[in-house]
Amino acid sequence: MNFLRTFDNWANTETHKDGSVIFSDSEPADALFLVLEGEIVLTLRGHALSNEGRGALIGEMAIIDDTARNATAVASGTVRLARISPDEFRDLITEDPEFSLHAMAELARRLRAVDALLGSRIE
Amino acid sequence: MDLLEVFKDSQDIVDFPAGSSIIREGEEGNKMFVVMDGEVEITIKGKRIANAGRGEIVGEMALISPELRSATVTALTDTRMAVIDQSSFESLLQYVPDFTMHVMNVLADRLKGAFEMIGD
Fold first, then answer.
1. Does B104 touch chain A (CB under 8 A)?
2. Cβ proximity of B100 and A107 under 8 Å
């Protein structure tokens, strides 16, 4: 994951302690986050969705204008994140094909996880 | 991004009559499609999750991550599709950032729809 080097000197990083909420369901989705260190637990209306580690991209609803969070992200242990604004995200997509492919794969992975949860509720 | 314009001269066009299956959940797949004309329905385990019409894409998941088809796509009307295979997809991602952003917006919209269905 060479693109992670882009984030070594990322201006906008934040550290969260174990148990702290990074974002919550129904808040405005104003940024994406790339996990630099540590682990995050994503839940969807009380259902466990996934655990996300280094390199994971979360908060993807922010790429749609005026959208609310649909999931809740909580730090499991100390985590360090790069905060990426929607504009910065679009710039990265344009400038860094490796990041671009990674971001798309991350979105597909999340969609498969949510579809699997949805499928299990249809059964 | 107007995919109808991008693919209007595509040589790889397939017609599906109303009612026919275009993609089946659980199968292997290595193509995605742009709806050039008509309308299709996307279902998971028989439950409708979305429709797609002119200029919209279906089947992109199998090209992004090498797993089985996550949903079934059925033609609701006679439908004309432009086919995008793995190598065309990779070229588009490499050389057309707008296409990449477009696909990501589609995925984000689908995610939003799936989240909302789970919330109901």
1. yes
2. no
